[in-house]
Design goal:
Blueprint (H helix, E strand, L loop, with lengths): L13 H17 L44 E5 H6 L5 H4 L6 E3 L13 E3 L2 E2 L4 E3 L2 E2 L11 E8 L3 H4 L6 E7 L7 E9 L3 E11 L6 E13 L2 E17 L5 E14 L5 E2 L9 H6 L23 E18 L2 E22 L5 E2 L12 E28 L2 E22 L9 E2 L13 E23 L4 E21 L13 E21 L5 E12 L23 E14 L4 E18 L5 E18 L5 E16 L19 E11 L2 E10 L2 E2 L15 E2 L2 E11 L4 E8 L7 E4 L5 E4 L4 E9 L1
Parallel strand pairs: 5-8
Antiparallel strand pairs: 1-7, 2-3, 3-4, 5-6, 7-8, 9-10, 9-37, 10-11, 11-12, 12-13, 13-15, 14-36, 15-16, 16-18, 17-18, 18-19, 18-20, 19-21, 21-22, 22-23, 23-24, 24-25, 25-26, 26-27, 27-28, 28-29, 29-30, 30-33, 31-32, 33-34, 34-37, 35-36
Length: 766
């Protein structure tokens, strides 16, 4: 039996990358052609320069009244032209095009599902939006109906209300247009990947009306992983009336169904940094046999494991232009989502590996602990937003105002699943797991959590052009929220036995309060197509604000007795549109602080005095620096510290680092077109990240103290066979780098990075 040795490439390029990107910005600016004096001619109109495929002028939100170059905040926009080149089909894959983001695997006993995103040091999973409205559930989002992905970094309470200090991610949906067209794609690839999609837009006989339909079917395995499947069916429709008129009505509907075989991960045994107390005690004085990594394709679950997701969302948007400078927009949405899954996870942590005493030197007899876990969750949202945009002149000042009101109702119902009393899950053979073992089935225990949050909010934002060179902006949002949670728990053996064990106990928790968020900024414009800005913004996240669920536990951040967590962001940045707006360069330095986090003070006491601080710099270069060449590059440098943490002995976090936050991340993608041929490629660098916040976590007695850094390189080539037909090949992980994509909190299991693989696609468009 051969065991794979882990590969580690510990190269720190943060200074070289930063220097190269900084030097590139003035060089590109200097390359901008000088304007020449032309002979006088008569013209009817001035044509706008053709936009570069990767460059976005604005975000889709009506609350952002200015172009990106004049918006005093770091906002990265990933357009469909970019993620389609990469055949990036999910939100998580698309987010590889912006630095400063990592993916999580979950807690020690639970595997995270869906888009588990960490951004700028803070959890962002519950700050994902679709067309400016909070999305539902912990699902993996597909991009088949996405026009562009907008990543706003730093606290943004004015934009969306309650939220974390990381910022938010918005997926802007495709909408019906005046032109008729059909775009279709069929792709096959490694891991039994099969995917077909179509985007059909048809002008209707009714004047100003159009219908757009996007469909998707994916039947796919996961490259390098046995048994795991990702299968998705999607339908999105957009019906618009009144195109190019003063009143426009849009009705959108989205249906997504996923039927997956989920992945519980693989043991970390043998990886660089692995430690097991069981192995250490069984083989004192380092006498253990030469064990190695398990095969990264091993599947430790049951083929009967499942992840069923159904999501439906209907949106009605009505827009009316009262005048060229006055626009009213009203959006209503109702959405429901349900997720049911049974998953078998492994735990190779401190006590997760089982070594039979009689055959301890025979690696083929070693076992690993595994558990069956499940989720039965239903989400619902009902929301109405009204936004008024107004431009008006007051003396020499030009006001650009966005104001509105919002009413929302969100709910989440979670049924607790557990193995029947007395039932345990059989261990798996560590190096040769079998899917034919007997698997226990989790069932509803009778416990459940039913949480609801209702919100009423009013907001106003004004950007004032004081002079052609100076702008000031200010925004404020006031909202009242009410969270109500009904809990049913099961009386356990540890509880004083005033009632029989197993009796269902009902309780209720409520929290009602007011939140006030604001942001302000000052912008100086050296030229019409550049800006230098200083901004300050805040956000608040109250108990239950992310999952609609309150807890009566004194050690839980969702205890209603606690104050909201409060985030602030101070940012100094600059943005430049270069080469007739074909190239967009940004740079920013910032400091984000999150206060009122719950930390452990001693063995039994928790206090809401925690504080985290992230200082950093971010650089982005996107567009076409020369003809036929497109680039998207980003670099983030982060210094993430816990400035006030737990002082409890043995779990001290005060002065520690924020887990899952790399100091350096870098992303690069570029393509060059020559006649009908397009070739391109890119690279991603992820610095090492800490698994735990604990200060001075001893690697000699703790497994996987950090996730090693890695580089991944990809490539693509496409050829335009006819004006309507093209073929495309994408190659991933060209160097077949062996790396840890995500790790669980306990360090006992991980998801491996995708090995070398390929996708072959055919695109049809007319």
């Amino acid at each position: 039996m051969a065991f794979i040795k882990s590969k580690k490439h510990s190269v720190n390029h943060q200074h070289a990358i930063a220097t190269a990107l900084l030097l590139a910005l003035p060089a590109v600016h200097a390359a901008e052609p000088a304007k020449k004096q032309l002979a006088e001619v008569q013209v009817k109109a001035t044509a706008e320069p053709e936009a570069a495929p990767f460059v976005a002028e604005k975000v889709s939100s009506a609350k952002q009244v200015k172009p990106l170059v004049d918006t005093p905040q770091t906002i990265v926009v990933v357009k469909k032209e970019l993620f389609q080149q990469q055949q990036a089909n999910t939100l998580s894959e698309t987010l590889r095009n912006t630095p400063g983001i990592t993916m999580l695997m979950g807690e020690n006993g639970n595997t995270a599902t869906g888009d588990s995103i960490f951004m700028r040091g803070f959890d962002t999973q519950n700050s994902i939006y679709v067309d400016g409205i909070r999305d539902l559930g912990t699902i993996s989002r597909d991009t088949f109906n996405t026009e562009q992905v907008e990543i706003a970094k730093g606290p943004a309470g004015v934009d969306n209300g309650r939220g974390s200090s990381s910022g938010y991610i918005n997926m802007s949906s495709k909408s019906a247009q005046a032109d008729s067209f059909i775009n279709a794609n069929a792709t096959v690839g490694s891991g039994s990947h099969k995917r077909v999609s179509a985007d059909i837009n048809q002008q209707l006989p009714i004047d100003g009306a159009a219908l757009r339909v996007n469909v998707l079917r994916q039947d796919s395995g996961v490259v390098g992983r046995d048994e795991v499947e990702n299968n998705t069916t999607g339908l999105a429709t957009s019906l618009v009336f009144g195109l190019d008129s003063a009143t426009r009505t849009t009705l959108n509907y989205l249906h997504v169904q996923q039927d997956n075989v989920p992945d519980g991960g693989i043991p970390t045994i043998g990886l660089d940094g692995f430690y097991s107390a069981t192995i250490a005690s069984t083989f004192p004085n380092n006498t253990a046999p030469a064990y190695g990594e398990v095969d990264s394709s091993n599947f430790y679950g049951s083929t009967a494991d499942f992840d069923h997701i159904v999501a439906d969302m209907a949106t009605l948007r009505i827009e009316h232009d009262f005048a060229p400078n006055v626009k009213l927009q009203n959006t209503s949405r109702y959405g429901v989502a349900s997720q049911e899954y049974i998953l078998t996870g492994v735990n190779a942590g401190s006590a997760g590996i089982i070594i039979p005493t009689a055959t301890k030197n025979d690696l083929s007899t070693w076992q690993v602990n595994r558990n069956r876990q499940g989720k039965d969750q239903q989400n619902q949202i009902l929301i109405n937003q009204t936004n008024l945009n107004l431009q008006l002149k007051q003396g020499d000042w030009q006001h650009n105002i966005a104001s509105g009101v919002e009413f929302s109702y969100e709910s989440q119902l979670n049924y607790t699943l557990a193995l029947p009393t007395g039932t345990t899950q059989a261990n798996a053979n560590l190096y040769n797991p079998s899917t034919n073992d007997t698997f226990a089935l989790p069932v509803r225990s009778g416990a459940k959590t039913d949480g609801r949050t209702s919100t009423a909010a009013v907001y106003a934002l004004d950007t004032i052009d004081l002079t052609p060179q100076w702008q000031v902006s200010a925004g404020v949002r006031f909202e009242h929220y009410n969270t109500d949670t009904n809990l049913i728990t099961v009386q356990g053996t540890a509880t004083p036995q005033t009632i029989p064990v197993g009796t269902l106990i009902g309780s209720q928790a409520t929290k009602s309060d007011n939140l006030l968020s604001f942001k302000t900024g000052v912008t100086y414009k050296p030229t019409d197509t550049s800006s230098v800005y200083l901004s300050y913004a805040t956000s608040q996240l109250p108990p239950g604000g992310s999952n609609f669920s309150l807890s009566t536990s004194t050690s839980n951040q969702n205890n209603p007795m606690l104050d909201p967590q409060k985030g602030t962001n101070l940012e100094l940045g600059t943005k430049w549109q270069l080469l007739d707006k074909k190239l967009f360069a940004t740079a920013a330095v910032f400091q984000s602080v999150n206060k009122n986090e719950l930390v452990r003070d001693d063995a039994t006491t928790y206090v809401p005095l925690g504080e985290k601080r992230v200082r950093g710099a971010e650089f982005v270069l996107v567009g076409s620096p020369i003809d036929n060449f497109e680039i998207n590059a980003g670099l983030a440098l982060l210094d993430a510290d816990i400035t006030r943490g737990a002082l409890y002995s043995g779990a001290t976090t005060d002065g520690g680092v924020i887990q899952w936050t790399p100091k350096t991340t870098f992303t690069l993608w570029g393509t060059y077109s020559w006649q009908d041929l397009k070739v391109g490629g890119g690279a991603r660098y992820m610095d090492s990240v800490a698994r735990s916040n604990t200060v001075n976590l001893d690697a000699a007695t703790n497994s996987m103290v950090q996730v090693p850094d890695y580089w991944v390189m990809d490539a693509m080539v496409s050829y335009q066979v006819t004006p309507d037909l093209s073929v495309q090949a994408n190659l991933y992980n060209l160097l077949d780098e062996d790396y840890v994509q995500s790790l669980n909190n306990g360090g006992g299991r991980y998801f491996p990075g995708t090995p070398r693989s390929v996708k072959l696609g055919v695109n049809y468009s007319f």
